[in-house]
Amino acid sequence: AEFRFEALRAQINPHFLFNSLNTLSSLIYEDRDKAAGFIRHLSDVYRYVLENRNRETITLSEELTFIKAFVYLYQLRFDNKLTVSVAVEETLLQRLIAPMTLQLLIENAVKHNIVSTRKPLNIEIYTDENLFLNVRNNLQKKQTEEVSTAMGLKNIVSRYGFLTRLPVEIKETDNEFIVKVPLI
What we know:
7 strands; single chain; Heat Shock Protein 90; 5-stranded mixed beta sheet; globular
């Protein structure tokens, strides 16, 4: 499971970097201040990946700090057609989560759904009374769906299988897609 998770991270990071550099290339000519902010956030994202690549778990607080920088990059890339809201109980911020779980779930939502002015993608991250972290997005599947191996979700399920007895729950309805990750 660790090997597959590492392989997934290695696969995602170059793709994310490529898209980020394309966004930065456009920003340099449009808005130097935004470009400078983009570089700072991109640096924060990669620092997080490097610092946490060998850790099995981190605090939810650390993951949320990382995800703010990550989402900032995505929102600039998609010109604010992507919204991510976070509603997490403060008492749960010291609970543990596998590093990069939220990044994988956000990338999964973006990969499989339309993100446009007419159809913005809304992602909600919130906790519930059962000590689960929920990631929910409105479902608006792309017409030309990319071939999916579902490896991202399989790796999250497998990884949490080693960390806790509680299962990762995945639910799809006509209108939304929800992944519930147990807090450790």
